[in-house]
Amino acid sequence: MSAEQLYPVPQDFACNALIDDEQYQQMYQASIDDPEGFWAGQATRLSWMRPFRKVKRTSFDDHNVDINWFVDGHLNVSANCLDRHLAERGDQVAIIWEADEPGESRSITYRELHRDVCRFADVLKRQGVAQGDVVTIYMPMIPEAAVAMLACTRIGAVHSVVFAGFSPEALAGRILDCKSNLVITADEGRRGGRSIPLKVNVDEALTNPEIKSVERVIVVRRTGADIRWHEHRDRDYTVLMEQADDFCPPDPMDSEAPLFILYTSGSTGKPKGIMHTTAGYLLYAALTHQYVFDYQPGEVYWCTADIGWVTGHSYTLYGPLANGATTVMFEGIPNYPDVTRLAQIIDKHKVSILYTAPTAIRSMMALGKAAVEGADGSSLRLLGSVGEPINPEAWHWYYETVGQSRCPIVDTWWQTETGGILITPLPGATALKPGSATRPFFGVQPALVDNLGNVLEGATEGNLVLLDSWPGQSRSIWGDHERFVETYFKTFKGTYFTGDGARRDEDGYYWITGRVDDVLNVSGHRMGTAEVESALVAHRHVAEAAVVGVPHDLKGQGIYVYVTLIEGVEPSEQLRQELRQWVRREIGPIATPDCIQWAPGLPKTRSGKIMRRILRKIAVGEYEGLGDISTLAEPGVVEDLINEHRAMM
Ligand code: WTA
C-alpha cells in the first residue's frame, strides 16, 4: 500500500467513534460466523409487537429464491420511527426542512411529526386505503412527503414514491404497474427557483385510458398555484387533515409485509418495481445509518438525496428517524441561488454529517473554492458520498475544501435493491483510500467472479456478487418474481449479481468500477439504455436507436445516442432538438441526450444484436481497436459511423 494514498482514521475522530478497527473486525467476523446470533442481537434495536420465531430463512437457489428475515415477527415502521421516541425526545427536532428559497425553513419535532402522521394515516383510512394497497407519492421535497410515507407504513399501505422530476408518461407507467388507487401530490414543486407543475403532470398521467385504479388524488398546497380541480377525484390535504383524528394506532405488520416499491432501471425492458419489506429493511437502514455515519445523539445529519430515490428513503428518512436523529430535508439544489448554498445550509443548521453525491461535488468543484466562500463549516465532522464512483480529484476537493482536511469521507456503495449500504468505510475504523468504497459492512459477503462464475481470490478484478442474504435486501420485483430471479440470481448461480464490476486490492479493499450491464449512471441516476431507446423509437421519425454512456465531467456519464431515421426523413438540427425534447417529455429531464449522432445503419451481429462495444468506442473517438468487425452483418456501417462522428467533432 503506498503511504500517500492512505488516510488513517484521525486521532480525535477515533477517540469518540462508535466502532474502532478492532471492533469492526470482531463484529464482522461474528456476523459471518453466526449470522443468526448476530442479527438476533441487532434486532433488539427495534420495538416488536410480536417476537420473531426465526432470524433468517433465505435461499439464493435460482429454482427457489426466497428471502425471509425475522420470520413471524410483528412490528410497525412508523411506531419505530416516531412513537417510541416520544417519551425521551418528543420535543427534539426530527426534521429540519430547508426550502428552495434561502431564508425559509421549518423545524418539526418528533411529537409534531407523530401527530401529523397519525392524522394523515387516519385520512388515508377514511379515504378507503387498506393494508396492502399501493399509494403513489409524487411530491416535492417537503415535510408532507415524509408524513405521507410514514402514514402509509402506519396502516400497512405500500408506498411507491415516484421522483417528482419524472414525466407524466413515466408516472403513468409506474401507476399502471402497481395499480395504485390513490395518488398524493402537490400543486407545484419548487426547485432551483423554478416551479414544477406536479398536479398538471398527475392530471395528464391519469388521462392514460389504461389506468383504471386511481380513485383519489390528494393535493398538498405548496405554492398556491391555480390548478384544475376534479371534484369527484381530487381532495385538499389541508382540509382532510383538519377533519382527521389526532391519534391513529399503528397496525402490527408482519416482518415480511411489503413496505414500499421503488421503480428503478435495469438493462432491459421498462423500470422494475423493487419491493422492500418491513423488518429487515428498517433494521438494516437503522443499523447502517448509525454505524456508517457514526451518528451520535443530538447531531444534525443531512443527506441531500431526494425521497424519490432509495437514498432518500433509507438515509433521509427511515434510517435517521428509526435512530431518533435530526434529519435535514432540503427542497432545492446545491447551486441555487448560487454555489455557496450547501455551505450556507451547513452553517445555518450546524450540520455535523453531510451525505451527498459525486455529481454535486463535481459541480461545486468546477468553481474552485467559491462553493465555501465566506462559510465557516466548523460544525462538520463527517462526509459521505453515494451513487456513483467518486473520482480521486473530486474526493480530494471534497476532503480538503468542504471537510477542511479534518472530516473522514465514507464512500458508500449500494443499490436500490440492497436497501442499505453494503460496502463502506466505518469512519472510526477504516483507513481511507480516495476512490475506494473499502470494506463490507456487517453481514455482507461480497465476492468477485469471472464471466463463468468462478470465484476469484486475492487482489483481482471481476463481477461483483454477494454470496448470502442481508436483512435489507429486496425480496422481489412487484408482481414479477420470475423477473427478479432472472435479473439477479441466474447470471452467477447461487449468488446475487449486482450488475457492477469491481477490483479488490492487496488490502482487501473494493473499488467499484461501474456497471457491467447496459445501465447508465447519469449524475448518480440510474437509467437503462433500453428505456431511452424505446422512448426514441416511439417518435414517428425514428426507425431505430442505440444509446451508450460516455464519460462526462460533471454528470459522470453522459447519454450518447445513435439514431437511424425512417426512409425519406432528412436529418436536421431542428430534428435533433426535437428528439432531445421528446426524450425529456417521455422520461424526464434527467434522461435528456447529451449528443445525438445520425446513423444510417447500426453495427449488428448476423443475429441482429447491436454491438454496443463498437458504439461506445466511436462515441469517444476511439476508432482503432474496435475488435473483430468481420462478424457484423454489414461491416461497412462502422466506417460510415466513424466518418459521421469525425464530422460532428
Ligand atoms: C452505483 C444508489 C460506485 C453502482 C444508492 C450501483 C456506486 C448503482 C456507488 C446503484 C459508489 C452507487 N461507488 N458506484 N459509492 N454507489 N453506485 O440503485 O453502479 O440508484 O449499482 O442506488 O449506483 O444505483 P441506485
Automatic annotation (TrEMBL):
The AMP-dependent synthetase/ligase domain, residue ranges: 83-465
Catalytic activity entry: acetate + ATP + CoA = acetyl-CoA + AMP + diphosphate
Amino acids binding ATP: G387, E388, P389, D411, T412, W413, W414, Q415, T416, D500, R515, R526
Cofactor(s), names only, from the UniProt record: Mg(2+)
EC number(s) per entry: 6.2.1.1
NCBIfam families (UniProt xref): Ac_CoA_lig_AcsA (TIGR02188), PRK00174.1 (NF001208)
Protein name: Acetyl-coenzyme A synthetase
Source organism of the structure: Halopseudomonas yangmingensis
